[in-house]
């Protein structure tokens, strides 16, 4: 049996499309390096190679049984939280508190595995929100208490709670009483809607980032948030959002249960939210005086540099489709 046989035809085509984009990008990078050798293209080459690794891990994880992808995304959440906590100083007294923060990651993804929506949606916003400061109280230190509790909880919400929404897309099952009628692209898709929604979210979020960069470099004149991210422009933002909306209109009805109208709205949501997520992480990095959140992804920076937009798009897109169909 082939590794990808259990996936729907639409998902296999989408993964093939990602592979095709990577091949074309690599050929273009090779051509640029060959015909413009006088310029330094090392960052571009590193970035392209890392995209191959990211896409490869994503595709293979998606082809595994459901628990395989949940473990993969849980590990990404762990790396993101570790990276976040390595950037922001925490009190020595809070080391045991951080243990509980890390322990929340497998628990949060276990709720996803159980499809236990009631626990999934309140575990970190309610139980961890109460547990973290309670555990800090018993360290006996009040100096920096509020700041430390806020740092840990913000990190959990961003790197674990937000990203776990992408994982929950995999286990969603539509109900007949949904607010919108599903427009299934195939019979198989009706039985397994999660992978298509997940690819739609991740691909549009990442392509939205790339499109904003390209439009900003090509036409950018007016800075949109100069104190937070000087390189971002109004033209880049508008071009990125427009590109994301068009791609959503093209991809959504062919890959997911959304028709053209809801795909357009989802594209608009992802385009705008992705930009805001990017700005949010940029504000943290500027506050800390660092360019990148890490170096684990050559050419990209850290996990948060790559998943910054996803921290906003994942929960908002999840609740968008959950409200409509589930």
From TrEMBL:
Its EC number is 2.7.7.41. The chain crosses the membrane at residues 12-32, 52-81, 117-138, 145-171, 191-215, 236-256, 262-281. One of its GO terms (biological process) is peptidoglycan-based cell wall biogenesis. It comes from the Bacteria. Pfam families: CTP_transf_1. Keywords: Membrane, Nucleotidyltransferase, Transferase, Transmembrane, Transmembrane helix. GO terms for cellular component: plasma membrane. The keyword Chloroplast does not apply. The keyword Transmembrane helix applies. GO terms for molecular function: phosphatidate cytidylyltransferase activity. PANTHER family: PHOSPHATIDATE CYTIDYLYLTRANSFERASE. This is Phosphatidate cytidylyltransferase. It comes from Symmachiella dynata.
